Amino acid sequence: MDKDELIAAIKEIAAPYTADKTALAHLSEKTDFITDLKINSANLVDIVLDLEEKFGIEIDNDAMARMLNVKSTVEIIEAKMRAHDRK
Amino acid sequence: MIGNDIVDLRQAELDSNWQRKGYLDKICTAPEQQMILTALYPARMLWLIWTMKESACKIVQRKTGIRSYVPLKFCCEVACHDGLQASGTVNYLEEIFQIRTEIKDNCIHSSAVPQSSDFEHLHLHYLQPSATYREEFNSLSGLYLLAGTPSGLPELTHQITGHKHAVSVSHHGEYLAIIYSDSLLSAD
C-alpha cells in the first residue's frame, strides 16, 4: 500500500468522527485530527482501534502518543506494517 | 496554569462506544477501569475520569507547549464522590494536579490546578457555546478581557493591571465552560 492509499484509508476511518466535512474533503498529510478536523479527543481512541483492525497491527502507547495528525499516523502504520512483514 | 474539561453526556453517548473492545485499555489504567466497571453508573464514572485526565493534560500542554496523546500516563484518584461533586488528583510523571468536578444531569465538568489553595481564587462560568461566547464573557466580567491568541489559545487580560491571568476554555456538545484565576497568571 503506497502513501496515497494509506492517506485515503485514514480519511475513510476519520470520516465518522468529524462534523467538518470541508476539512475532511481537504484532508492531506498536513491535517491535524484535533485542530483541523475538530475530532473529539475521546474519539481519537476509536481511530486508533479502527486502524488496528483495518491493518492488523497493534498501536502501542508510545505510537498513540504521536497520533495527532495524518503525517505521524502514516509513519506509524508504515513502520508497524514493515515490522509485521519481517516476522 | 489551570485546565478544564467538559463532557456533554448526551453527545458522548451518541459519539463514543466506550464499551467497544480495547477502548478502556487504551485510555484507563487497571484501577481506573475497576472504578468504572464497578460504579453504579459506569458511563458517568468514565467521563468523570476522562475530564480529570483532560483537564490535567491541558495544564501540561500549556506548560510544555508539546501536544501528545497519552491518556494512560494521567493516573486518576477519586478521593470523594457524592454523585453531584467529586474531588481527586491526577498524577502525571512526577507531577500531581488537584481536581474538582461538578456532575450535573447532562454534563460533567472538571477543573485542574497545581495546588488545592488555588481553588480559592478560581471562577467558573457556564456559557452558551456560540461564536460570540467571548463577547458574552466580557460583558459579564467587566474586570477581565477574554481574547484568543493567534494559535487559538484563550488569553485573559486584567483590564486595570494588564496582567495575563490563567484561563481555560472547554466546549463539548451543548456546553461551554470557562475557568480563570484571580491569583494565578498565565505564566505561573
Brief write-up:
The complex is a heterodimer of chains A (87) and B (188). By secondary structure, chain A is mostly helical. Chain A has helices spanning 3-14, 21-25, 41-55, 61-65, 70-86.
What do you see in this structure?
The complex is a heterodimer of chains A (87) and B (188). Chain A is mainly alpha-helical. Chain A has helices at 3-14, 21-25, 41-55, 61-65, 70-86. Chain A has one domain (3-85): ACP-like (Non-ribosomal Peptide Synthetase Peptidyl Carrier Protein, Chain A), CATH 1.10.1200.10. Chain A is built from five helices and no strands. Chain A is globular, with a radius of gyration of 12 Å. The relative contact order of chain A is 0.17. Helix content of chain B is 28%, strand content 39%. Chain B has five helices and ten strands. In chain B, the strands form two sheets. Chain B has a five-stranded antiparallel sheet. Chain B is globular, with a radius of gyration of 16 Å. Chain B starts with a strand and ends with a strand. The mean pLDDT of chain B is 96. Chain A: Residues 1-81 form the Carrier domain. Chain A: It holds the Pfam family PP-binding. Chain A: This is Acyl carrier protein.
Keywords:
heterodimer, A: 87 residues, mainly alpha, Non-ribosomal Peptide Synthetase Peptidyl Carrier Protein, Chain A, 5 helices, 62% helix, globular, B: 188 residues, alpha+beta, 5-stranded antiparallel sheet, 28% helix, 39% strand
Secondary structure topology:
The complex is a heterodimer of chains A (87) and B (188).
Chain A (H helix, E strand, L loop, with lengths): L2 H12 L6 H5 L15 H15 L5 H5 L4 H17 L1
Helix pairs in contact in A: 1-5
Chain B lengths: L2 E6 H7 L7 H5 L2 H8 L4 H23 L9 E8 L3 E8 L2 E9 L3 E7 L8 E6 L5 H9 L2 E5 L5 E5 L5 E9 L2 E11 L3
Antiparallel strand pairs in B: 1-5, 2-3, 3-4, 4-5, 6-10, 7-8, 8-9, 9-10
